[in-house]
UniProtKB/TrEMBL annotation:
GO MF entry, a single one: enoyl-[acyl-carrier-protein] reductase (NADH) activity
Family under the similarity heading: Belongs to the short-chain dehydrogenases/reductases (SDR) family.
Primary gene name: fabI
Species of the source: Methylomusa anaerophila
Enzyme superclass (EC): oxidoreductase
CDD domains found in the cross-reference section: SDR_c
Protein name: Enoyl-[acyl-carrier-protein] reductase [NADH] FabI
Length: 239
């Protein structure tokens, strides 16, 4: 795996923490020049300072002007990874218009506008890597917005792959993964969530950030894979 991404510039939007930071770190270990993109530039700079040779840039995936400005400033990238999400996990009867829109902006509209501004500066042998999620394939009350936005990401990957070819576009669909995003639940609730998720997988455990980073680096360098959604969820769709 070492140096797979040698001399390649990898922008990770959402790279200041959790799965984004894990992918950024692994990309750096694989020889990439890493750029951390985040809506909070200070957090991006702090994350970049942990990674040799990395830099930071301001990008809010819900604000087209910041996407356009970042593309103009960078001038050229080989790969873009987008981990951004916004949750609205409520029953249908409690849905709020603006929170639904925010969820679509983070996962679907933002990546579409990212493609608009970054395709012209992406290497023809480069790629865009989106993040979907297992909720798309496991309908559950209270998770309809998450399921639909993540499902849209899988279609977005295949649609963009066709139009932007030869630039490759793929998605990773994680199952419940111990990325740090669940820590605000508190130890007890997190343990309960993870126990339930482990029991609802074929491998009997939740995902790790390493599981996702491994898959991400492989997808960035898999030159014959495009338009695919790769499920890193221990077979949870089959339980
Ligand atoms: N972890 C899991 O169990 C799991 C399961 C299924 C799918 N996924 C998907 O995997 C992806 C990564 O998940 P994660 O575990 O790392 O946690 P996450 O909490 O979804 O992380 C989202 C990242 O995106 C950033 N972000 C949010 N809104 C943004 C915006 N408008 N512009 C730019 N960046 C923005 C966040 O940073 P700030 O909020 O600090 O700006 C954070 O770095 C997400 O798309 C998630 O839906 C995760």
């Amino acid at each position: 795996m070492k140096e797979q991404l040698s001399k390649q510039r990898v922008l990770v939007i959402g790279g200041s923490k959790y799965l984004g930071l894990a992918v950024a770190r692994r990309a750096g270990e694989a020889g990439a020049e890493v750029v951390i993109g985040a809506r909070n530039l200070e957090q991006a700079s702090q994350a970049a300072a942990q990674l040799p040779g990395a830099s930071a840039i301001h990008i809010d995936i819900t604000d087209e002007s910041t996407i356009a400005a970042a593309a103009a400033k960078l001038g050229h990238v080989d790969h873009v990874v987008i981990t951004a999400s916004a949750h609205h996990n409520v029953l249908v009867k409690d849905l709020e218009h603006d929170k639904i829109v925010a969820a679509f902006e983070a996962k679907v509209i933002g990546p579409l506008l990212l493609a608009k501004h970054f395709a012209p500066i992406l290497s023809p042998t480069g790629s865009i890597l989106l993040f979907s999620g297992v909720a798309a394939w496991k309908p559950a009350p209270g998770y309809t917005v998450m399921g639909v936005t993540n499902g849209a990401v899988a279609f977005l990957a295949s649609q963009l792959a066709k139009e932007l070819a030869p630039i490759r576009v793929n998605a990773i669909s994680p199952g419940i993964t111990d990325s740090g995003t669940w820590d605000p639940l508190g130890e007890q609730d997190k343990k309960g969530l993870f126990a339930g998720a482990a029991a609802s997988s074929l491998v009997g455990r939740v995902g790790t950030a390493d599981d996702i980073a491994d898959a991400a680096i492989w997808l960035l360098s898999a030159g014959n894979v495009s338009g695919e959604t790769i499920h890193i969820e221990g077979g949870a769709r089959h339980v």
